[in-house]
Amino acid sequence: MAQLKSSVQERIDALDAALRLEISNRAGLGISNFTSTVNPTVTDDSTAGYAEGSRWLNMTAGVVFTCIDATPGAAKWIQVSGSGSSTGNGASGVNRYTYTVTTSNKTVLTAADLTPAGFSYTPGSNALVVHIDGVYQQVGSYTETSATAITFSQPLPVGSTVEVTAIRQVASSGNARDEYVSTAADGTKTIFTGADFTPTGFAYQPGLNQLEVIVGGVPQPSSAYTETDSTTITFTSPPPAGASVRVLVYRAITLADAIPINEKAQPNGVATLDSTGKLVQMPTVTDIGAATLGDISRVEANIALNAFRLSATNALSLQHFVDGIVDEYADETGIDTVNSSGQRYNATGHYYDNLTTGQAAGHALAYTAGYMNNTPAANGSSLQFTISTWIKWDGVGLSAIIAAGSPAYNARLDQVWINANGTIYFEQGRVQTSTITGLTTSGSLTPNQYHHLLLVYDSSNANAANRFQVYIDGVLQTLTGTQVPLNQTTTFNQSGTTQTFSQYAGGTNYAWNTTTGITLYDTYMVDGLVLAPSDFTQTKYGSLQPLTYNGSYGALGYHLDYATTAVGTDAGPNGINFTPVGMNTATQWVIDNPSITSVNAMTLLSTPVSALSSPTTINVVVLEEDIDAIVLGTDLTIDVSRDGGATWTAVGSLAKTGSYNNNTSVLQGTASVGGQPNGTSIQYRVNVVATKALRLHGVSISWK
């Protein structure tokens, strides 16, 4: 399926179209039917998607209707054009002309091409309705070139049938319709008077339904404005800033013309549909240049959402399905949550996904008492090391993390602790004589919340700022204080220097001080290497998560994974085991691990919907968003049932019929259910494998 790469202006136009469609949907403006061959009935109501103001064209009889009441089972439609219409003192007639395309690159149709003879209309009067192979063409996809010709923006497909319906209006006197235009300047104006409109002379008679009001190309329901007096209308909500406000005043008739006015043209607006109801095009929004449009994520999502709505509703009219439902997951009432599994509902975004939030596997070590230490018997690197750990701090005062060396007089010692305000402090010094290095982070730890902490020591680096680095949750911290001198040796990983967790050297005599208040999970020391957060963590499904380190540990590197109550056991290759001192591993060895998001297998089962009779074919339309790359038919499958879920048939033809930004797609497919036992209890079932994540924004099913 082709996608359009749009300029910034085209992107703005596309978003404008999405906004107008969203406004019309929220205002209750229902679907319209421009392809019917029969008149509407009392069952063409709100349950079928119609609303007050919906339009209906009977192409066989050449008459147009407007819905004035969409009450289920008691809908009211009034004929507003065609032979025999007695609405007011004016009348409208409908003439239809056809042409079968036989040559390529043809864009202009004239009276000579169309059958029967006599094609003519008044350009600019919005008097035409154009279909190509039964698909309604929006105003803007063609130009009203002259009284006997129209020009299409794209070449007509060879072999296609073009049908042009000309609505002719005959008024008893004067014009049948006057048009007045204004612009909403600042988005706050609700009252529009004759002085606001061009041309001058705006006037009408309140209470006779003489007006059709169109804001930004979207027809407004009567509930959106009040006929205040003969030269004034008052909107319930102010039209958006910059939007055009068009008011059509009908003379000698009481209802608005049924032809849509100034719909946004494809391809910058809503995608057109082919004869099966599939989307032909949807706009992408590739930025060209440096234009800034602000936060438009919700508007962009509406482009895909409205394409889904169009696909779902057009399945009924274009594919002749007799009934169906559309569930955009505004709530969970359409889902059998008891018998579904692996699903998670997002009430803000109105979607289901197959993600779950829980704890990472394994155990952690809570330093509520005691400490652990180890004294190497050999030397490792004196210039480089990397320490990685997940850490949770209780927020109560200073808490030591790790130290190496001796607190003896004039002895070397390197140590890391958490200040009372949550910042990380690194110190090197000859304990009772001088401080070589003292660095404090700009960022801090949030109490009682896990963070990933990465400490990188590289005194051989020519750039002083890179000799000691601290990352909190993958973010490099700005350090204040005295940096590590060039080629300054470290006391970590050196023979005879004790490494200790949860102790630091300080106080009046600089003895070891044991602190509490930290919990550590998945702790690594890598000797002699300078590593990055990506060696130990990954961002997956929107959260930072532990990642198993698979590189070299160096001579004295270790991995404390706290897998057993022997909490000091090195899970790495070097056997650098630590000794717990003053600890109760029965209570301090805990399952209190970082939170992670993972993927589940999901089965999303709908609640049964009753059909009037046992169908033989069920159509499915899905609005789906990839989180991982989804393979249809393998990672995502859909089944349908007509007997209340006792028998299921796979939708084998599921395919993308439109996509947006390469990860949100409209999927469509059908299943033949004639082999199932007869039944009228219709259900669908969406199945997703346990290795791929996605979001489902809506599902529609229709049947015949």
Describe the structure.
6% of the residues lie in helices and 40% in strands. With 704 residues, it is mainly β. Among the domains are: 177-250, no CATH class; 303-354 and 600-703, Jelly Rolls; 364-597, Jelly Rolls (Sandwich). The strands form twelve sheets. Strands 23, 25, 30, 31, 32, 37, 40 and 42 form an eight-stranded antiparallel sheet that branches. It has an eight-stranded antiparallel sheet with strand order 33-29-28-27-26-34-24-41, with no helix packed on it. The longest helix has 22 residues, at 297-318.
Please outline what is shown here.
The protein is mostly beta strands. Among the domains are: 177-250, no CATH class; 303-354 and 600-703, Jelly Rolls; 364-597, Jelly Rolls.
List keywords for this structure.
Jelly Rolls, eight-stranded antiparallel sheet, 704 residues, mainly beta, 52 strands
Q: How many DSSP-defined strands?
A: 52
Give the class from helix and strand content and strand pairing. mainly beta
Question: What is the averaged pLDDT score?
Answer: 81
What ranges have pLDDT less than 50 throughout 5 or more consecutive residues? 1-29, 82-93, 169-175, 252-299
**What's the N-to-C terminus distance?**
27 Å
CATH class of the domain at 364-597: Mainly Beta
Strand content: 35-45%
Helix content: under 10%
CATH topology of the domain at 364-597: Jelly Rolls
Number of helices: 3
What composes the largest sheet? 8 strands, antiparallel
Per the principal axes of the C-alpha atoms, what is the gross shape?
elongated
Q: Cα-atom Rg, whole angstroms?
A: 35 Å
Any idea what the CATH architecture of the domain at 364-597 is? Sandwich
